[in-house]
Amino acid sequence: MAETRVKIAPVDPVWSRVCEEALAAVAAEPLLGGLVHSSLLHHPTMERALAYRFSLKLASGEMSEQLLREIADEAYASDPALGQSARADLVAVFDRDPACHRYLQPMLFFKGYQAVQAYRVGHWLWGQGRADMAYFVQMRVSEVFGVDIHPAARIGRGIMIDHAHSIVIGETAVVGDNVSMLHSVTLGGTGKEDGDRHPKIADGVLIGAGAKVLGNISIGHCSRIAAGSVVLQDVPPCTTVAGVPAKVVGEAGCSQPAVSMNQILKDCDC
Questions:
Q1: Which residue has better confidence, 225 or 254?
Q2: I need a labelling partner for 147 at 20 to 30 A (CA). Which of 10, 45, 154, 213 fits?
Q3: What pTM did the predictor assign?
Q4: Which residue segments constitute the domains of the chain, with CATH numbers given?
């Protein structure tokens, strides 16, 4: 007797929640029905929805929406890590941003989240040897979202960039998992040296608004960089640095500063 195999549909709690929230959003605001359906409910998977948003936002007279959609669909189909990272980023934004009350908000409205997902497609293109197309994606992300991330930069998952205006991340920068940063952060080089010249940000780091981290330096895990600081030297793990130039002013204050998002400096000489 032939064995009967039942095909079980994959469980995707993140995407299921997005769709539930989308239906509720349309019921509450019917005028948004076209946007919500075309961007979310029309698509069978989160990857397909992300590809649609990527193509819609980055299309221009130089590159059609159809071509960009084909590129993004190919990227998500060939590299499952892109979709996994997108889900981790979405949960991170929801958990850490008090202005985020639903999963659908980052996908529809938050340029930090959308810029990071577009960077991920550009980084995939870079890894495929398609540098010029990756540069095109970088250019359009900068023009549309005000976020400039070199496609060769390596960024982990669980990333939250709040507000995201004027973010700059250079070519040889490395950003670990579960990192949070606010607007106007620069991970840049110094001088005109070539090669490995950008910061290495370990897991769980919180980078405050307007902070500049410059040069091939290491920022230890679960550390905090205070808003407006200029960091030019290595930062030990689990510490807080502040000032221009930045110096160690105390411990990080908690085990996961990137999750707590606490930026208050207490009992320190800054």
A1: 225
A2: 45
A3: 0.92
A4: 13-146 (1.10.3130.10), 153-269 (2.160.10.10)
